[in-house]
Design a protein that fits this description.
about 140 residues, mainly alpha, about 0% strand, elongated
Length: about 140
């Protein structure tokens, strides 16, 4: 299983380097995605090793059942910490945007400048948004939610 994941990541890395000019946005994004997946796999493997070490340490002291409970408690505590971190991040009020204080004309100039700078990304986002809205509008009224 892990060998298959590694093979896919290596093939994707090799393919992204061959098909995209060096320094292109698509190449950087595919490399970023590969690094993110690799980091996730490494984090899961590291967490597994830590839990195995806790199990090996706790089993002689509290028995097999107690070792399993301690490992489950550690995983639950990790989940709680992650949940509280994401919950706090999602409940904080948004900060004011620096563009909120601009008058309409200055705001439109900034929008146009940002569009000129990121034309491809903007058009791709608009196309995806159009496909999503078109798909929603083409559904029968009873299927919309």
């Amino acid at each position: 299983m892990m060998n298959d994941v590694i093979k896919i990541a290596v093939m994707a890395l090799a393919e992204s380097r061959d098909s995209v000019p060096r320094g292109g946005a698509v190449g950087r994004m595919s490399l970023t995605a590969i690094y993110a997946v690799g980091s996730g796999v490494a984090a899961v493997a590291g967490l597994g090793c830590i839990m195995a070490a806790v199990w090996v340490y706790a089993r002689p002291i509290v028995g097999a059942g107690g070792g399993a409970l301690i490992v489950a408690a550690c995983v639950g505590a990790l989940w709680l910490v992650l949940f509280l971190m994401t919950h706090n991040a999602s409940t904080q009020p948004p900060t004011s945007s620096p563009l909120a204080d601009l008058d309409t004309q200055t705001f439109m100039k900034e929008v146009w400048r940002a569009f000129e700078k990121n034309k491809g990304h903007t058009l791709l986002a608009a196309a995806i948004a159009g496909l999503i809205v078109g798909n929603i509008l083409n559904k029968p009224q009873s299927d919309r939610s």
